[in-house]
Amino acid sequence: DGKKIKKGQEVKIISLKGLTLLVKISNKKNN
After folding, report:
1. 5-29 pLDDT, tens digit each
2. What's residue 1's pLDDT?
3. Which InterPro entries did the record assign (predicted)?
4. pLDDT at 5
5. The 3-state secondary structure of the chain, one letter per residue
């Protein structure tokens, strides 16, 4: 169970990084 929780946290971190990248790209296009 501990491994499952750790893996879930890693996935959340990766998805958050991806979202921030998408936001940065969209901001550059808008400006």
Report:
1. 788 889 999 999 999 999 999 999 8
2. 66
3. NA-bd_OB-fold (IPR012340)
4. 75
5. CHHHHHHHHHHHHHHHHHHHHHHHHHHHHHC
pTM: 0.56
Residue 5 and residue 22: Cα distance in Å, rounded?
26
CA distance 31 to 16: 23
The residues, ordered by sequence, that sit 6+ positions from 24 with a Cβ below 8 Å of its Cβ are none
R_g over Cα of the chain: 14
Place of tokens 């971190």: 13
Residue type, 13: I
How is residue 25 written in tokens? Answer: 């790209």
